[in-house]
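Quick one: structure for this chain?
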Amino acid sequence: MAECVSEREEEKEEEKKEERERAREEEKDMLIFSGEYTKAMAKDWHSGHFCCWQCDESLTGQRYVLKDDHPYCIKCYEAVFANSCDDCNSVIGIDSKDLSYKDKHWHEKCFLCNKCQVSLVDKQFGSKMDKIFCGPCYDAQFATRCDGCGEIFRAGNKKMEYKARQWHEKCFCCCVCKTPIGTKSFIPRDQEIYCAACYEEKFATRCVKCSKIITSGGVTYKNDPWHRECFTCTNCEASLAGQRFTSREDKPYCADCFGELFAKRCTACSRPITGIGGTRFISFEDRHWHNDCFVCASCNGSLVGKGFITDGADILCPECAKQKLM
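Got it. Here's what it folds into:
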């Protein structure tokens, strides 16, 4: 029932307001015959017609505020349009300065640091949890610290961020050459930041032969990196990349050089027995033969896997040895 009464009252008030506006429109064109009239808003008014747009009280001789081309008495203007102070909750009247920040408003005398109560008018300030603080108080309570120098970030300082870490712009620099990174590329390693040049100089893979950086390709031998062009035979310098090779005392040699320098020699053909590529050979009493060279000195039949008889420097199959003795 109370709601119905309230709605009827609102409807009556709205109707009265519409009647006043219609009356004002009609009164605009009425001639002024009396000697007393009011001049306002570049227009002439009967003294009784220049009224507050909200309450209809006469504004003749009174202070008023113009809003959307309509005049309002001070009381109505402050009641309808003025903001309330976020600190003291009082209306910020037309005689007070209205200071605002993020949809909040303060009297000039109420615009104070929430911590030390110093005035923030014309000063830098910070906001936290819907409260405002002077620069020093904000820094002391809430400012984060630079991962480079450990100092706090003052209001207005540019901040560089990477993976939950923060730096002053001048502190975000290469840990080796100290050059500011700015917008250049960088490489993080073990909580440190490196520019590309210093990271490459310090950590890039280097050839064990020439000590220069391997930028692409390369060969790994015994867990050591080589440039392809640097991986050569220790003796003749021929490239070993993609070729058959062997080693001696951890040094690589091509097959030919290894055979000439270190391999046993075949008793029959005098060529090196390298064993590279699975080559098989026969050894007997400090003498060695390639499998293909281990043949009877008389009939040239292969003796691999067969019995044989020595005759001085020669080896013979049993049949040839028997014929020689007869």
